[in-house]
Amino acid sequence: MPLNALAGRSGRSSATRLTGVLLAASLGLSACTPQSRSEVLPERYVDPPRIAESLDDSETEEAEEAWDQITGWALDNATEEDLLDPDRPSREEALTTPVTERMTPETAEAWQEFVDADLAGDREARDTVNLLRFHEWPAKFHARRMEPVHHGSWITAGTVRPVDGEAYELRFTLVTRAGLTWEKSLVERDINRRLKLRVVPDGDRWVVEDFDGELRIAPSPENRQPVL
Fold first, then answer.
1. Digit-coded pLDDT (tens) for 162-185
2. CA geometry: angle at 223 spanning 218 and 225, to 5°?
3. Count of C-beta atoms within a 10 Å radius of residue 99
């Protein structure tokens, strides 16, 4: 579901394409989470990615550095306790500054427009913001009193491959498991985001030039936690 309305307002070309899809928010969906040998949920971890075999040693080292920097940024921004609480309104600063510090100027400008539209009530823009900075549960979740208790995030199913010029394409699944009190019961929900990021070098840093993704929310599988 391309979110091209904002691009039309700003006059930007479609070169910077930011899209978001909310596939489902259903209690009946299964979650894409790894099997567990532990009952302890780590605060965060990253599975090693599959890196294109066509790269030489120097390029592989470069791809690994891009992966490490960008996945660290993705985990830092996955969400936070205040954002998981439906009774606390999201602040613009919390949705922009932490995210845009790892974006190209053009992508940061587009992100700001999505945040502005999101906070003004645009649901499609909200779906896009939720991809990188989850802060708004689906409307059906607001029918019950919820309060966040804990959360942890991890990254799995990652790949890195070269694309045009010096860019790399990173694909991975970012999962945030949130423990919530829900009408006096403790429940867990997995926020699953399948992301595709195009990243480019900026000095000694790697920054996001473009992103796309899908999001779904599902009950956390019983007695299944990430592998430590």
1. 999 999 999 999 999 888 887 777
2. 75
3. 22
How far is residue 131's CA from residue 39's CA, in Å, rounded to a whole number?
27
Q: What is the dihedral of CA 190, 224, 80, 228, to 10 degrees?
A: -140
- Give burial (CB, 10 Å; 0-12/13-18/19+) of 11: exposed
Count of C-beta atoms within a 10 Å radius of residue 52 = 15
Q: CB–CB of 32/224 below 8 Å?
A: no
Q: What's the predicted TM-score (pTM) here?
A: 0.79
- Among 73, 52, 62, 72, which Cα is nearest to 200's? 62
**pLDDT tens for residues 118-175?**
999 999 999 999 999 999 888 766 656 677 777 889 999 999 999 999 999 999 999 9
How far apart, in whole angstroms, are the C-alpha atoms of residue 73 and residue 203?
17
